[in-house]
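Records of this kind hold a single protein each, on a pair of labelled lines. Below, a sample record shows both lines together.
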Amino acid sequence: MTSEPSLTRRVTRLENDVEAVYELITDIRSVQDEHSRRFEQVDARFDGLESRFDSLESRFDGLESRFSGVESRFGSLESRFSGVESRFGSLESRFSGVESRFDGVEATLAEVVRRLPEPG
């Protein structure tokens, strides 16, 4: 008969342990449900951020395209300005030639004026 109270005590302890395990499982399930809700909220926020980043990426692609066009236009302007600069260089050399010729004409004119008889 002494083993019966010991057995009853062991069974009671095991039943208490089983109840404690079930309570722990219930608590764990509750925490898992809370974590699942939080993960869904975080996932929704990430979806929103992804959408915003896609929008920004699209805008940057558009800007990149526009800047490529501007860069191309500047390239063509640079070549046009190089052509203008070349033409100005050629005009400058032509004006230098004309200036030299005028210097020669001026010297000749001065000599002609010097050789003219004095009035009077």
